[in-house]
Amino acid sequence: MRLFKKKDKKDQISDTDPKQDEILNKIESRRKAKTGINRIIHNPLKFLTENPLNILIVSVPAAIIIFLAGFITTVRDYGIKSLITSTFIDDIFVITLVVALTPLAFFYTKEGMRIKNIEVALPNFFRDVAGMNESGMTLPTAIHSVANGDYGGLTQHIKKLDNEISWNVPFVEAIYRFGENLGTPLARRSVDLIAKASKAGGNVSEVLNAAANDSYEFVNLADERRNNMMIYVVIVLVSFLVFLFVIAIMTGTFLDTMAEAGEAASASSGGDTPGMSFGGSVDMGLYRRIFSHAAMIQGFFSGLVAGQMGEGSALSGLKYSLIMLLIAWVSFRFFI
């Protein structure tokens, strides 16, 4: 006969504190609100801005609506032939592209700056915690001490880590959440190293110093690469401007001169010798449109190349792409 009978699930639930149940229910409801479709409904703005690509959910449909409205208006007012003979459709396409990609370029650049600020501050944070741990402080106490310091964009995450530890969240679990919240490969790698050392019961201060040195070297190498590749970014941008300048010279001098010479030859021959009017057959509008397309395509893809070479990501070059696209469009629309 068993003296102590194991409580069943109902008895365990009935013995719990109602206030504790209420707190647990609130925590569970908060957790559900941050997962799946509920996360989007609960805070759509945060969902759109937490990942730069998410903003395309809004910008692409808006751009499509603008394109369709412009397309229908152009065909209705000027006829279907205007799609070939007029530059209105080019203007609509450029505006559509700018509307679709400008938010992505903005948020991607902002995210890149956030990651850079965090990664620059990581070595100092790890070194400070390691120094306090070596002086005899426990890791939670050391983190609590440095939480009042200034680590730029990393400060709010350190304070959140300190709060979780003060709420008796296990250190390993809290440090893993810290790495996930930072959301950078360098942070995840360093945090994983620290968590495993803490689990194994090793000398965590040495691991923290190693993580600090690794982070420092990573940031230095990234800065060195960026500085070394900057000259190639400048070359790409200058090449586009030279390309645009050459096209402007060709359009404003060579083709115009050919057209005028052809018209003069045609007039002097009485228009009876079409073979002599080679220059007069030059369709300047068509040539300008072809050159404008070439310049805009060159500018857009040169920007992507500049981003890939300078910052290691083609999406980082979207800001250059949009700027050069607009330069080419404005140049041909108003000046060339």
SSE diagram, text form:
Elements: H1 9-15, H2 18-33, H3 36-42, H4 44-50, H5 56-78, H6 82-85, H7 88-134, H8 139-146, H9 155-166, H10 171-182, H11 185-200, H12 204-268, H13 284-311, H14 318-335
Summarize the structure.
The chain is mainly α and 336 residues long. The chain has 14 helices and no strands. It is elongated and about 100 Å long.
Count of DSSP helices? 14
Assembly type of the chains comes to single chain
Beta-strand portion reads under 5%
- Note the run of SSEs as H and E: HHHHHHHHHHHHHH
The average pLDDT value, as a whole number, equals: 81
Q: In percent, how helical is the residue content?
A: over 70%
The whole-angstrom Rg is 31 Å
Low-confidence stretches: 1-14, 272-279
How many beta-strand segments? 0
The rough form would be described as elongated
Largest sheet: none
- Summing up helix and strand content along with how strands pair, one would put the structural category as mainly alpha
Q: Termini distance? A: 100 Å
Transmembrane segments: 53-72, 92-109, 230-250, 318-335
Domain Type II secretion system protein GspF: 125-251
Main location: membrane
Keywords: Cell membrane, Membrane, Transmembrane, Transmembrane helix
Question: What would your notes on this structure say?
Answer:
Keywords: Cell membrane, Membrane, Transmembrane, Transmembrane helix. InterPro entries: ArlJ-like, T2SS_GspF_dom. Its main location: membrane. Pfam families: T2SSF (PF00482). It is a multi-pass membrane protein. With 336 residues, the chain is mainly alpha-helical. It has 14 helices and no strands. The chain has helices at 9-15, 18-33, 36-42, 44-50, 56-78, 82-85, 88-134, 139-146, 155-166, 171-182, 185-200, 204-268, 284-311, 318-335. Helix 12 runs antiparallel to helix 13. The protein is elongated, with a radius of gyration of 31 Å. It starts with 8 loop residues before the first helix and ends with a helix. The model is unreliable at 1-14 and 272-279 (pLDDT under 50).
